[in-house]
Amino acid sequence: MNFFYFLDAFTGRECDSKPQAVEKMVITENFLEIQTVNDPVNSIHSAWTAMLNKSNTGEGLFTQNILTDNSQLHKPPHLENCKIMNEANQILDKRIENEKLPPWTMWKGFLNNYPLSTKDKQQGYNSHQVTSKDAYPPWIKGSDEENYPLTREVQRDIWVHQHPMNCRDPSVRFLVTDWERIPGFGMGAQFAGMCGLLAIAINEKRVLVTNYYNRADHDGCKGASRSSWSCYFFPETSQECRDRAFELMNDKQARENGIITTKENYTTKHIWTGSIPRLWGSPWSYMQPTTEVNGTLIGYHRKMDRRWWRAQALRYLMRFQTEYTCGLLNVARHSAFGWEAAELVHSTRISEYIEEKTQDSKSDIEEYVWSNHEPWIPRPLLSVHVRMGDKACEMKVVQFKEYMRLANRIRHRFPHLKHIWLSTEMQEVIDKTKLYANWKFHYSNVRRQVGNITMAVYEASLGRETSTNYPLVNFLMATEADFFIGALGSTWCFLIDGMRNTGGKVMAGYLSVNKDRFW
Predict the structure, then answer these.
(1) Whole-prediction pTM value?
(2) Final residue of a domain: which of 238, 267, 285?
(3) Has residue 327 been placed in a domain?
(4) Between the CA of residue 110 and those of 89, 378, 467, 486, what are the distances in Å?
(5) Residue 40, preceding bond cis, omega within 30 degrees?
(6) pLDDT in tens, 49-89
(7) Contact 35, 41 (CB under 8 A)
(8) Could you say which of 214, 219, 251, 491 is the most buried, measured as most Cβ atoms within 10 Å of its Cβ?
(9) Quick check: is 374 in a domain?
(10) Domain limits at 429?
């Protein structure tokens, strides 16, 4: 039996492992046999894997590299250059001096860095003419009709609220809080709780500052990012405001005068079911009815305001991924789609073009235009999240065959759909995928639950790093999929739906397996 090295998809570390059977997201024994037959594709895939073993953020994958046959290695279309992406986003998350907003121009991504010629400037060609007040946050995709109402305006206003011009201005007040860590609280509950605290901060005109995040308290999060939300996503406010807030935490008078508050100043009811910010009116009252429950589109329900707000709050908190999170997604995409990407690259015979170029050459359109395209994944892609286990104490759980019945409904309308990104904690669900040979399933290589142990016990058995990284990767992949099937009775699915509806996917719709709940 062959042994090989591969990246652990959820720690980003190199593992010495035996080939795993059946699972698509790991290299199976049969997979290795196929690779041996198809040497050119295997060479490309193996080279990408070796590079990811060195750095899952892709630093070595976007320079010219040589394969064993002396041909040049094509850049992997399914991976992201995390370092470059992070540097670009840092600029977009920082205010220009004396300006209200960052340089959010109407030009996209790396085109903002395009060096205009002297002739262009002399003729009045100006990429920054339409900036700031007329531009929108660059993390919002799609048209206004493809997102929840007022998404662009709300995201801009939250950013401004969380980034005051002068954090030391006496009028600036703060709400400093740890992430919830009550035993048994899942990651979805933590996200929902922080959305409630952001609502309180906005209603009270305070800057929200997050502190200890227990799920980032592991060796994968390095330096200052350990135990912090900033391990996974950009901080919710500027470093200047964070410094000022923690300084005031030691000031007894500031606490007594209400300049600074903490989570303990608010009741559970206030955090979880408190007032939704009304700065933008009631945009939830005209959300498009694109969610189907039991065969019927849902127009109005009693949780529409909270559904809209949690979507806005979480979209802001997750507006930009860090290099670490980007690297985790690189590994997940490579594990799932790397072989197909290698086949695509080989089949185009693009190496003939690459060999004609000088080693360091890179055209402007590659550097400034095509670099803005997202990493390749096979589309259309359907994400299915199957929640079972101890969720039965909160809602009626639905068997996998019902999820697949809905999947086949989507496929009937979109017959070219064949890929499913499956996320579930239950091994029995993975086992049942064998019954659906006409679908291509992709899922994470992680030990799953057998029986009805609690989620808390299951997560503890995986360890902090894996139990955080693998669901987060599944969550983010679900937000990027073309279609989604889940259970609205699950907070996790509720939040995935919110991220999709602030990510340009409103018109993809949402099929829920719940027939008795829609909030």
Answers:
(1) 0.88
(2) 285
(3) no
(4) 10, 25, 34, 35
(5) no
(6) 988 888 887 666 666 565 655 567 788 999 999 998 999 99
(7) yes
(8) 491
(9) no
(10) 381-512
